[in-house]
Amino acid sequence: MIRDRMAVVHLHPRLAPVYPLGTRVNEAGRLEVGGCDTAELAREFGTPAYIVVEDDLRSRARAFVEAFRAASPTAEVVFASKAFPCTAVYRVLADEGIGCDVASAGELASALRGGFDPRNIHLHGNAKTEEELAYALESRVGEIVVDNHDEIDRLTALVAARDQRQRVLIRVAPGVSPDTHPSISTGGPNTKFGFNLEDARSAIARLQADRRIDLEGIHFHIGSQILDLAPFGAALRAVCELGDFGAYNLGGGLGVQYTADQPAPPSIAEYATAKVAFVQELFGPGKKVIDEPGRALTAHSTLTLYTVQSVKRNVATWVAVDGGMSDNLRPMLYDARYEVDVVDRMADPDGAAGADTEVVCHVTGKHCESGDVLVRDARLIDPKVGDVLVTPVTGAYGHAMANTDNGSPRPPVIFVKDGDARVAVRRETREDLFARDV
């Protein structure tokens, strides 16, 4: 697919932060990403479809690595792969020198298939099975993040049976709840993740007593979509009493800007500098700092394309598309808000351009659920059946949470770069729905 060579105009400045790097609108008014016309992408690959701008993905990966290494030469950046567990994404991030955090045997298999060195993989999870722990040991993963006493029982038995050493971190719930949605707050006093501070002491003693276990340090993760960095310092202060260790994994959590009117998050450099400074202030120099940016690595790299199937008015105007909760569950789970536009009639966030033909509407999915609404009170310019709509910032938890509700085949993942497009994950077919039948 060749880039449209016409002269271009840039996105409205308020929209630029929520679209991938290099996004622009040509003089015909069509949105282009990765040098590809989004209307042509929809025609060639169908909709719904996830479109990944490879240059954006690589640029953010490099920014995280450079920022953390500038703050601490030994710092390690680890991709929280639950955000976008796609083989092609794993390959890009492994190529950029980032480690990988996995939370299941399936994610571990995906990371290995995507080219990650097992020594750079960290296994997470609050309910790891014996099979998952055995697979991690067999794969020689770098670290296992221990979550509970029952897991210690299983892990110590497995390493003894194999006479194998294993590096671990211990996950601690520091009792800190940042300002985020309750469903993605993970470090408070009543979380399912990790040891509380009192239980952590006995767990540390058990791990340190086993000659086959190398306890390297503390891990915590207080939540996602965090815009205020202060809670990371509070969490570190809470775990100070557990002892002095060589490594501190501060989880991830940096938020991203989903809409033009949301506040911008701290920059990657501000985030990295603050986290390293918190560790050095409390524990001194020489500690290894590990960070697990998930959504902040991938969210902005991707947008989703849909085709309008109907436009109707009840009390409100409803613009229905060919996707919905099967490809983006976040609005239903977290009341997440997104921008949405017609790809050849981009709206002006300030309400000037297209004001006469702008329609306030609900962009809804095709599924048999009243809650299947992607964007409420959207502003679209003259929406019509057949229009291609675009939703940016869908590179975190879109593909990861995709499902087959109402028998809907899951969308493809299309990588775009320098005017070329390639299929990284093909569209699921109806026959795929029956692949597990016996």
Mean pLDDT: 91
Helix content percent band: 25-40%
What is the CA-CA span between the terminal residues? 41 Å
Outline, from the CA principal axes? globular
Task: Record the SSE blueprint.
Elements: E1 8-9, E2 24-26, E3 31-33, E4 36-37, H1 38-45, E5 49-53, H2 54-71, E6 76-80, H3 87-95, E7 99-102, H4 105-113, E8 121-123, H5 130-139, E9 143-146, H6 149-162, E10 166-171, H7 197-209, E11 213-219, H8 230-239, E12 247-249, H9 268-283, E13 288-291, H10 295-298, E14 302-313, E15 317-321, H11 330-334, E16 341-342, E17 358-364, E18 373-381, E19 388-392, E20 413-417, E21 420-425
Report on the architecture of this protein.
The protein is of the alpha/beta class and 438 residues long. The protein folds into two domains: 8-53 and 299-434, Lyase, Ornithine Decarboxylase, Chain A, domain 1 (Beta Barrel), CATH 2.40.37; 55-298, Alpha-Beta Barrel (TIM Barrel). The chain is 26% helix and 23% strand. It is built from eleven helices and 21 strands. The strands form three sheets. Strands 5, 14, 15, 16, 17, 18, 19, 20 and 21 form a nine-stranded mixed beta sheet that branches. Helix 2 runs parallel beside helix 9, helix 5 packs across helix 6 (149-162) and helix 8 (230-239) runs parallel beside helix 9. The longest helix is centred in the first third of the chain and has 18 residues, at 54-71. The chain is globular and about 70 Å long.
